[in-house]
Amino acid sequence: MKKLLNDPQDAVAESLEGFGLAHADLVEVHLDPPYVTRAGEVTRGKVGLVSGGGAGHEPLHAGFVGTGMLDAAVPGPVFTSPTPDQVLPAILAADGGAGVLTIVKNYTGDVLNFETAVELAEAEDVQVASVLVNDDVAVEDSLYTAGRRGVAGTVCVEKIAGAAAERGDDLAAVTRVAEKVVANVRSMGVALTACTVPHVGKPSFDLPDDEIEIGIGIHGEPGRHRVPLAAADDVTRMLLDPVADDLGISDGDDVLLFVNGMGGTPSSELYVVYRQARRLLEARGASVARSLVGNYVTSLEMQGASITVLRLDDELTTLWDEPVHTAALRW
Amino acid sequence: MKKLLNDPQDAVAESLEGFGLAHADLVEVHLDPPYVTRAGEVTRGKVGLVSGGGAGHEPLHAGFVGTGMLDAAVPGPVFTSPTPDQVLPAILAADGGAGVLTIVKNYTGDVLNFETAVELAEAEDVQVASVLVNDDVAVEDSLYTAGRRGVAGTVCVEKIAGAAAERGDDLAAVTRVAEKVVANVRSMGVALTACTVPHVGKPSFDLPDDEIEIGIGIHGEPGRHRVPLAAADDVTRMLLDPVADDLGISDGDDVLLFVNGMGGTPSSELYVVYRQARRLLEARGASVARSLVGNYVTSLEMQGASITVLRLDDELTTLWDEPVHTAALRW
Known about the structure:
Two copies of one chain form a homodimer.
Chain A: H1 11-22, E1 27-31, E2 34-38, E3 48-55, E4 72-78, H2 84-94, E5 100-105, H3 108-123, E6 128-133, H4 153-166, H5 171-184, E7 185-191, E8 211-214, E9 225-228, H6 232-247, E10 254-261, H7 267-283, E11 287-294, E12 304-311, H8 314-321
Parallel strand pairs in A: 3-4, 3-5, 5-6, 10-11
Antiparallel strand pairs in A: 1-2, 2-4, 7-8, 7-12, 8-9, 10-12
Organism (chains A, B): Cellulosimicrobium arenosum
Protein name (chains A, B): phosphoenolpyruvate--glycerone phosphotransferase
Subunit structure (chains A, B): Homodimer. The dihydroxyacetone kinase complex is composed of a homodimer of DhaM, a homodimer of DhaK and the subunit DhaL.
């Protein structure tokens, strides 16, 4: 295993510590237990947004803590859910008196641990709502999930719900818009290589030199099928078609097209995928009104990409365009 | 070779095309010959900034075209200098009547081809100045260079000179500040893995599973020495010490610390490197006043990182903090 790490057991804590030092103007990193909050005082009267999940998907979630997006993020160990005793202080810290929305990717461990933390927070008189992200069209149930998995579409939920909270929407309104994003966002990914969890020390799965895995999960869990390595335009079609079909994309739709890197793929390749995905959407009569290309929901050093499509309306477009100031997303 | 590409010969053009579609609000992509300019009309009376070099280092340079940074970028084929007939139209397009500064990384091919293009532009009555970036302390001469190579410090030159041009400094003043950055910025990198040039199809060099290359060039050209794979804190020291020694960093210095990913390394590892590099600088009595962590000057999918230190003064800090709006750098 070749990584720029010290003791693999310390990887998440040391990385968080560096992240906190580099972005001290934006975030405060807590290490015992580990969670990340916005720097400074909580905003009174604003709905708080909390997300979290296993580490290894950076910049998700800590990279999205800041004005216009999350109030707190809770990283577990690599590819492992954070515990309720990590999530609880994050919820309490994010509460400015207007309640908290937790945004949870649909993995059984995350769902259970967030539920427990929410119960504990409610026992402390914090009002909490939750939204479950399940945008991955690749498989219905998986190794770690009942129902569809939550993947890169989570970025869209966090950005848009974050903008709604920032402008002063109440908990019911922020929850409604988060659920609207979930209802209109779909994703699918491909792996060219496996990744190696630091404390495991060997690749999570074997992928022959001439095969790729279509519909891969962000923890390297199996997708739909393995196919021979193909041209980028063909691979892009294998991802985009199921996404657009599931969303029912048709003539006149405005969409956000998000091409996400899995961590080890150069951005030059992501733009090749973007080019073809855009063409395929336009061939369906859709208009790509907003775009995002880069490494936002990764799987350590995995080579590969995912395609996310969000069907836009005026409300979602307006909220997407609102200012955001986080370590990983800023405009 | 596992990449998300179509015909490797089309990789640069297709990627540029996708880049132009995704960022049409910021840039205009020209494909014959390939160069990238800011979207819209040139700013009359502003010094134009042009940079370029081989592709494969994205987001360098096209990702830095926009307000507060470059006016045009010229990508050659992967790891190959752009030709004078690409550089010339970029210079002409960037000229708003106040002259053009070209920012060239010190590689023999880039230097020669930019020189030729500058002569051709001057023949068309454009006033051109040039600055050479040579921040890599690893080796004095290399496979492609007489003198030190230009690497990630280029981002600092482009950002700070870009801010000076944007506020209306004249060509002599912008050139002076660019040279001041060059005089105060140093870098050194490490490779954990090799990378594969698309049209070559096999890794540029062999690196055993238990070795890393200290002082690697951004084209995979040899560095100072190979050493056994070591802990991140030790590797960081091997990079930071030569950089800080060469700069003569000492008690009371304010610095910008820039940890750059080579393309295939997850950001979580870059923050582990950042943490230790910052400690080492602070142990020398320096204060890390500004930070940048991420993939900005890459070598395709290479795993590895580089450390860049820029000694700051009030002028450089002020210009660094000025707004920038490009695809890859924005605040």
